[in-house]
Amino acid sequence: MSIESHVGWINFCKRDLILDDESKILKDGNLTLNCTLEIYEDKAITNAEIEEDNPHVNASLLELSKSFNQLLLEPNFHDITLNVDGVKFLAHKSILSARSPVFKAMMKSPLEAESTSVEISDISKEIVKLMLQYIYSGEVGFINVQTAMGLYYAADKYELIRLKEKCSKILASNLEVSNAIDILLLGDKHFDNDLKFCCIFNS
Questions:
Q1: What does the alpha-carbon distance between residue 144 and residue 163 come to, in Å, rounded to a whole number?
Q2: Could you tell me which residues are beta bridge partners of residue 84?
Q3: What would the pLDDT profile of 56-90 be if each residue is shown by its tens digit?
Q4: Is 189 exposed, middle or buried (0-12, 13-18, 19+ CB in 10 A)?
Q5: Is 119 helix (H, G, I), strand (E, B) or coil?
Q6: Using CA of residue 58, residue 60, residue 64, residue 66, what is the dihedral sign?
Q7: Could you tell me which Gene3D superfamilies the record lists for this protein (predicted)?
Q8: Per-residue pLDDT for 97 more than 90?
Q9: Please, are residues 164 and 123 in contact by the beta-carbon 8 Å criterion?
Q10: Cβ(120)–Cβ(82) under 8 Å?
Q11: What does the alpha-carbon distance between residue 29 and residue 37 come to, in Å, rounded to a whole number?
């Protein structure tokens, strides 16, 4: 009887069989065990995940999103203006600060705390409008690749992480030979290894 015939025992092996010289299970008096170890990661379920499929919660979030977006469209009590290429966007310091760490640091700065305007020269007015729409409502709607690239830049600049991830997914899913280089350069400029990897291996 050889050891090969006993590989994969489901239950137990008798001690006498192991010690039997004819079984050849022991080699030089040593017993070798081959084990398969499976590790399962515990995943904590957050309240957000539990509530995700709750229609009442979704309805409340939708209502909240619409209300904040309406605040942007009809900016009552606004206290700051974003000046972009001759266009003035009225906004609220508290909302900008709550959504963007960069805006928050800007508003807390002694030089900017009393200021009522911000000049933005490196982002187009179309992109700033979409960025504000996202800041207030959490949505940007349908956007094409070119818009996603501009919005990606804005999201990275103002540390809007979820918006940046959304734009990155749009770019990755619309990757073509004609735009792969531009998207690759964008990913490289912003140290986005995932986007760069996608361009190199999926284009």
A1: 14
A2: 87
A3: 657 777 788 887 788 888 867 888 999 999 999 99
A4: exposed
A5: strand
A6: positive
A7: Potassium Channel Kv1.1, Chain A
A8: yes
A9: no
A10: yes
A11: 25
Q: Which two tokens stand for residue 134?
A: 């996202």
In 87-155, which ranges are E strands?
87-91, 117-119
- If phi > 0 it is left, if psi is from -120 to 50 it is alpha, else beta; for residue 191 that is left
Distances (CA, A) of 89 to 80, 123, 140: 8, 13, 17
Got the DSSP string for 50-90?
A: HHTT-HHHHHHHHHHHHHHHHHHHS-TT--EEEEETTEEEE
Q: What is the DSSP letter of 27?
A: B
Report how far residue 115's alpha carbon sits from residue 96's, in angstroms, rounded to the nearest whole number: 14
200, 181 contact by CB (below 8 A): no
Q: How far apart are CA 115 and CA 108, in angstroms?
A: 11
| The token pair that represents 59 in the structure block | 């309805």
Residue 106 has a CB neighbour count (10 Å cut-off) of: 19
Whole-model pTM: value is: 0.66
Both tokens assigned to 198: 């996608």
Q: How far apart are the C-alpha atoms of 171 and 198, rounded to whole Å? A: 10
Number of H helices, E strands in the chain: 10, 3
